[in-house]
Amino acid sequence: MDNEQPHQELVKCVVVGDTAVGKTRLICARACNKHVSLSQLLTTHVPTVWAIDQYRIYKDVLERSWEVVDNVNVSLRLWDTFGDHEKDRRFAYGRSDVVLLCFSITNPISLRNCKVMWYPEIRRFCPQTPVLLVGCKNDLRYMYRDETYLSYFRDRSPFVRATRKSDLVMPDQARAVARELGVCYYETSVFTYYGVNEVFENSIRAALIARRQQRFWMTNLKRVQRPLLQAPFCPPKPVPPKVCLAASTYEENMKSLWTRPVHTDVTLIASNCTFSVHRCLLAAASPAFHRLFSMELAQELTPRSSSESSMVYASSIRVWEQLKRRSSFQVLPTMDNQRKSNGATRELNHPAFQNIRICMTENANGVQQPMTVITLSKLITPQAMQQCLQFIYTGSLDKRYHDLQTAPIGLLLEIRQAAEFLELPQLLMVLGSIQTREQFVNSDLNNRYKQVVRQRLEDICLEQGLFADVIFELDDGSVPAHKAILTARCDVMKAMFSGDFRESSAKVIVFPGVREYTFHKLLCYLYTDEVPAISSARCLNLLELANRLCLQRLVNLVESRVIEDLERLSQNEGNDAVENCLRLLEPCKLHNADQLADWCMNHLCVNYNKLCKMSPRSVRLLHPENQEYLNEHRWPPVWYLKDYDYYQKCSAEQVRENKPTLKRNRNQSGCLCFSGSSKTRREGNTGNGGGGTKSTTSSETPADRPLFDASTESGEQAV
C-alpha cells in the first residue's frame, strides 16, 4: 500500500449494504470530515463514488485516515461498494480486515437483506473477517415528525413519501439480528454526526484483535481492547412552540374614529367648521382639554360673564376624589337641570377656547343624549384644528406637511400656535423636525406619542373611570366604559351598540358570567392593545371572554402571558407548572387557545415521567386522543429508555468481568480443613506441658460453655 509506515498498522474496511442506505455518506463523513445539512440530505443523492484511489490523489484524505486507537497507529482505508445484489464484489472483499454491514433504520427490508443476502456473501468471501452491523440514518427515528422534514415531501408528493413510524427499525429489533449473526451493533447519523467516529474506531479494534490472534508475537497489539459499547442516542428535547400574535389593528381602529366618527360626545366649532370628536381621546392627548372637561364636571354650567369665568388649571382634591368615584355621565347635570341650562353658554378666558355649553341632541338610534359644544377662539383656524385633531387620533399629519418644500409656511405656523395652546408637546417636536429637515425622527416621535396616549387612556378611563357613557353590570360589581372605543375595537360590541338591540340605547348593560377582574383585563386590551401580567390559574375566564367576543389577538396575548408564567414556574423545583398545564390542556382547546394548548402538551410530553408519578389518575382522565399523543410524543421515548437499560446492564456485566478476583495469601492461611484443629491442638499440647489446663466440673453443661475460647487469638471455636 502507498505511504505505509513501518510502525503503522494498515486496516482495510469494506462497507456493504443495500442501495441508498447511507454507505457513501458515512464514508465521506469519516474520510472527508464532511458535515451536511438536512436540505442537502433530502435533495441530493450521492451514488457510489468513493474509491481507494482517493488516498493516492488527495493528501488531506490520506492524513485523515491516520488515527491512534489504544496506542496503536492505524491508517484506515475505506472501500465503498455498490448496493446492487447482482454485482460482483469479490475484488472489494479481498484482503479485507473488517466489514461494515450497513442498513437503513427507515427501511426494514434492508435489515432483512443483511441477514438473508449480505451476511452469507461476506462469509463466502471473508470467512474469518470480523463484521459489524451498522444502522444508518439514526436521526430519522425522531425527525420523521419534524415540520421541516415533512414540508420537503409535502411539496413533492406523491412521487416521494416521508418516513412513517411503521417504517422505523427499533434498536432492540436490530440488536436481535446482530445477536443472531454473532456481530456487534452500532448506529450512526451523518446529520447529527452521532456514532460516525465511534463505529470506525471500534471497527479498527475488531480488525486489530483478529490480527493479534494471527500474529501473537506483535507486542504493540497487546493493549487493544474489544469493541466498546455504544451509548444510546437520546433525541433532543422537543422545542416549545412559539406563540404567533395576530396583527394589531389598534392604529386602524383609532383612525376609524376620526374618519367615521360614532358615539361622539363633543362638538368643536372653529369659525364655520364643526368637528365631532370624543371626550376621552381629547383628554388623554391634551392636558388643556382634560382640565376643561374636569372643570365642566366639577362646576355647574350657568351663564356667567367673561370676567367671572376663568380656565381652571388645577382641580381641588375634593373634585378629584369625586371624579374617581363616579363616571362622567353620572356627574353631568340631571335632565331637569339640563333643560333649564340648555343653550346656556359659559364664557372662558383661554387663548384656545371661547365658550362651552351643553345641549341635548339625538344620536343615530334616536335617543336623546347630552352633547358638549366648545367654541374655539379665532386664534385657531379650522385647518390648524383639523391637523391637530388628526394628530391626536392618528399620531401623524397629512403627507403634504411632511416636507417643508410642499407645506405652506403660514399653515405650519398656525398649527404650531394651535399645538401650543392645546398643549401638544409631541406635535411641536414633529413640527420642529420638519422645519429643521429632520423628518427621519418623526417615526420615533409618533411611536412615543402613541405610547403616551395609551398610558393616559388607561389612567383616565380605566383607573379613574372618567368620561364614561355606559356601565357594565358584572357578577361582582360594575365597570364604566366608553362606547366609542368599544365600537372601534370590537366587532361584537359594534354590532351591539349600532344595531337595533336594546343595549344600543341602554346606559347600564348586564353582562352575566363575567367577573370584574376578567372584564378589566379585557378593557386594558381594548384601550391600550396590551394585556397586563396574568397568572396561569386565572386565565381561563379571560380566554373564554376573548373567544366569545371574537378577539383573536387578545387570545394570543393571553397565551403569551400565560406561557411566561408557566416558564417561570417550570424553573422551580415544584410541580406547579406540570399541574397547571394538565389543568389548562383541554379547556384551552375548547376556547380556541390552540397555541397555549400545544405548549402545555409539549411541556407534559417533556415531563411525562414526572406527570405519571405525580398524578397517574389525571392522565387516565384525559381525552383518549390526548393520551395517545402523550404516549407517542413522550420524551425520552420508550425505545430510548429500553436501549438505555440494556446499555446499563451490559456496562455492569463488563465491570464485573473486568473486576480482579481476590486471591488468598498462602503465608497467612493453610488448609481450611486443618487450620483450626491443628492450631488448637498445638495450644493444647503447650498447656499440658505447663500443667495449666483448665478442667470443667461435672455440673457444667454444654449449654454453659462459651461458643468461642477466649484464649484463642483469632476467635476460633474452642474444642
Describe this structure in words.
The chain has 719 residues and is α/β, with parallel strands linked by helices. It has 3 domains: 8-215, P-loop containing nucleotide triphosphate hydrolases (Rossmann fold, 3-Layer(aba) Sandwich); 264-301 and 345-459, Potassium Channel Kv1.1, Chain A, CATH 3.30.710; 470-633, Potassium Channel Kv1.1, Chain A, CATH 3.30.710. The strands form 3 sheets. Strands 2-3-1-4-5-6 form a 6-stranded mixed sheet, sandwiched between helices. Strands 8-7-11-10-9 form a 5-stranded mixed sheet. Strand 12 (470-474) and strand 13 form a beta hairpin. Helix 12 (279-285) crosses helix 13 (287-298) and helix 21 packs across helix 22 (491-498). The longest helix is centred in the middle third of the chain and has 22 residues, at 442-463. The model is unreliable at 1-5, 297-341 and 671-719 (pLDDT under 50).
What is the SS-derived class?
A: alpha/beta
CATH topology term of the largest domain: Rossmann fold
Question: Average pLDDT value?
Answer: 82
Oligomer: single chain
Q: State Rg.
A: 44 Å
Whole-number total of structural domains: 3
Q: Give the helix tally.
A: 32
CATH class (first level) name of the largest domain: Alpha Beta
Contiguous low-pLDDT stretches (5 residues minimum) are 1-5, 297-341, 671-719
CATH architecture of the largest domain: 3-Layer(aba) Sandwich
Largest sheet: 6 strands, mixed
Helix content: 40-55%
The CATH homologous superfamily of the largest domain is called: P-loop containing nucleotide triphosphate hydrolases
Report the count of strand segments: 14
Q: Which outline best applies? A: elongated
Distance between the termini: 77 Å
InterPro entries: BTB/POZ_dom, P-loop_NTPase, SKP1/BTB/POZ_sf, Small_GTPase, Small_GTPase_Rho
Keywords: GTP-binding, Nucleotide-binding, Repeat
Protein name: Rho-related BTB domain-containing protein 1 isoform X3
GO biological process, one term: small GTPase-mediated signal transduction
